[in-house]
Amino acid sequence: MPVKAQTSEQQGFAYGALLLGWLIPGAGHFLTGRWIRGLILFCSITAMFAIGLAANGHLYAPNTRNLIEMLAFFGDLGAGGLFIVAKLLGFGNTVVTIVSADYGTIFAVVAGLLNIVAAVDAHSLRIGRKS
Amino acid sequence: MLLSHFNAVLLFATFASIVFGITQRSTPKAMLRYGLYCWGWFVISVIVAAWVMHWINP
């Protein structure tokens, strides 16, 4: 059975791709040298988040109102830097009164969740669990 | 920006399928095939669900 050689992807801080990928969509893949994948992920996740805001979607703040809203906050938080910057700039402080804004709210939450999927994928590439 | 429900479905399916395709497969060809596969099922599922909801509550 061939011995698996230690690759450069297994050296250094193992969670760098995960954290960077969370903070900036696709950046975890940049760190592992997958530039095209990272760029496509950045464009897709950022576009989805931006469309959510453009549709007057609501961004959740930390809350203890009910389980759905608490989970939605964690979904939004998954977008990392996008969520932080949007909150700092005052986006997403809308009251959802039309259906389109409801779609926008969901788009922002799902963009965050997809960013977590992408960040975990970058981490898997970083530690050599997948190629 | 106003989104109709069907437009929202198409956009949602597109973005989700892109991410799924890239993260769940290893080669570009497999990524594209899986992404299209996911996209197709997203759209078909929503259309079927819409008709089922219509039939159970006309």
Beta-strand residue fraction of chain A: under 5%
Number of helices of chain A: 6
* Anisotropy-based shape of chain B: elongated
Shape, principal axes of CA atoms of chain A = elongated
Query: How confident overall, as mean pLDDT of chain A?
Result: 89
Number of helices of chain B: 2
State the low-pLDDT regions of chain B, or none: none
Beta-strand share of residues of chain B = under 5%
Overall pLDDT of chain B, averaged? 93
Distance between the termini of chain B: 30 Å
Overview of this protein structure:
The complex is a heterodimer of chains A (131) and B (58). Helix content of chain A is 61%, strand content 0%. By secondary structure, chain A is an all-alpha fold. Chain A is elongated, with a radius of gyration of 17 Å. The model of chain A is unreliable at 2-9 (pLDDT under 50). Chain B has one domain (16-56). The A-B interface holds A 37, 40-41, 44-45, 47-48, 51, 54-56, 98-100, 103-104, 106-107, 110-111, 114, 117-118, 120-121, 130-131 and B 1-3, 5, 8, 11-12, 15-16, 18-20, 22-23, 26.
Q: What's a quick, concise take on this entry?
A:
The complex is a heterodimer of chains A (131) and B (58). With 131 residues, chain A is mainly α.
Write the layout of secondary structure elements.
The complex is a heterodimer of chains A (131) and B (58).
Chain A: H1 16-23, H2 27-31, H3 35-54, H4 67-77, H5 81-88, H6 99-126
Helix pairs in contact in A: 1-6, 3-6, 4-6
Chain B: H1 5-24, H2 28-56
Observed structural traits:
heterodimer, A: about 130 residues, 6 helices, about 0% strand, disordered N terminus, B: about 60 residues, mainly alpha, about 85% helix, elongated
